[in-house]
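Severity: low
Component: inverse-folding endpoint
Summary: output formatting inconsistent between runs
Steps to reproduce: submit the following structure tokens with default settings.
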């Protein structure tokens, strides 16, 4: 079997709000083979940049677009192709967008491998640790405490036993922050877990003060309170509060996660499969396992990410819950012909060959940026 094409499809809602909500567009990767098998992946990054990285022609041996490196290659040789893409982009890659683009292709290659061998991806990863995941409803903060609490109420009514709220306008004023958390806790009661996603805006001292202030709300974790580069700050925070500290969605390499764990001392490592790829995610999970750190997914995009997350979380011993974006974007929620169902706050690991999610061509056509 040989790869015949690698395409980057950019989908975008007609109107995009200036919020930290990456469900409003999507970069879908389609890898085609001469055996008729098509693999699907996704990248949560800057879509136009990813498209350029995939489509760029050869400039020289260290500056090459990813498609031209892959045409004619055997899609089953995933680790070797990862190495080939890394070497062929050394001048402009190694971190950030190039690694994100490689991640989307990595997911598509695993999808192809599963379809070619007639097995769900988690079996090829050596998994089977669990056949379902507890899921938390991942929300943006709304612009009032009441509207935010209403989101929490809906999640609990739908059967979720854990809810997360994140980003603006949270974090700017301690009194207002407490009003938000109080409204959420009053609404969901004591049995539901609440996670807080701060949005990278505090320093270490502010985080420690807020963590103490928030203790009555019994937060399950505080996520990304500091800018991603402040590893020493993360270390101080993690050692200074009994509340778990979660981070990782800004990182996309094994080295980045190693630093976050060893210097940043995080308690929960959040791996986005559409930014790391399954191949790297398995290595990150193994390093986390050595350190006694659980891994979870980060996911604010489509069911391709959800499916990849389920296969990953089923394939490592140190996973326990899955993030599921409940923002109502039609691209995220309707891309799959066979959407992943969340029932009573749980999702089953797909059992179909490959990732187990097939995009709906009509949705692609409706939102494709040409
Ligand atoms: Mg987050």
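Observed output (run 2 of 3):
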């Amino acid at each position: 079997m040989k790869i015949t094409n690698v395409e980057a499809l950019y989908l975008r809602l007609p109107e995009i709000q200036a919020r930290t909500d990456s469900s409003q567009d999507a970069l879908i990767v389609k890898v085609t083979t001469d055996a008729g098998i098509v693999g699907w992946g996704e990248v949560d990054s800057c879509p136009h940049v990813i498209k350029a990285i995939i489509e760029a022609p050869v400039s020289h041996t260290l500056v090459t677009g990813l498609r031209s490196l892959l045409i004619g290659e055997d899609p089953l040789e995933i680790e070797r192709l990862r190495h080939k893409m890394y070497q062929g982009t050394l001048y402009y890659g190694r971190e950030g967008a190039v690694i994100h683009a490689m991640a989307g292709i990595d997911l598509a290659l695993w999808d192809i491998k599963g379809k070619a061998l007639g097995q769900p991806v988690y079996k090829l990863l050596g998994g089977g640790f669990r056949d379902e995941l507890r899921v938390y409803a991942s929300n943006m903060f709304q612009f009032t405490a009441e509207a935010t609490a209403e989101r929490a109420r809906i999640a609990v009514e739908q059967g979720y036993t854990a809810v997360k709220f994140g980003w603006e306008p949270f974090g700017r004023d301690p009194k207002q922050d407490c009003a938000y958390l109080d409204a959420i806790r009053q609404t969901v009661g004591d049995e539901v877990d609440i996670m807080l996603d701060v949005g990278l805006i505090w320093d270490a001292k502010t985080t420690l003060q807020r963590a103490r202030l928030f203790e009555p709300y019994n937060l399950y974790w505080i996520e990304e309170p500091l800018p991603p580069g402040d590893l020493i700050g993360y270390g101080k925070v993690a050692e200074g509060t009994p509340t778990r500290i979660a981070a990782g969605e800004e990182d996309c390499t094994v080295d980045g996660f190693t630093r976050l764990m060893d210097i940043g001392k995080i308690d929960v490592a959040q791996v986005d499969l559409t930014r790391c790829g399954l191949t790297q995610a398995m290595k990150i999970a193994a390093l986390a396992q050595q350190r006694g750190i659980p891994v979870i997914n980060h996911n604010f995009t489509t069911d391709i990410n959800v499916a990849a997350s389920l296969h990953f979380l089923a394939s490592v011993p140190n996973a326990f819950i899955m993030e599921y974006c409940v923002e109502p974007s039609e691209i995220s929620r309707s891309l799959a012909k066979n959407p992943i169902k969340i029932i009573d706050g749980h999702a089953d690991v797909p059992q179909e060959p490959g990732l187990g999610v097939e995009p709906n061509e009509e949705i692609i056509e409706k939102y494709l940026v040409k």
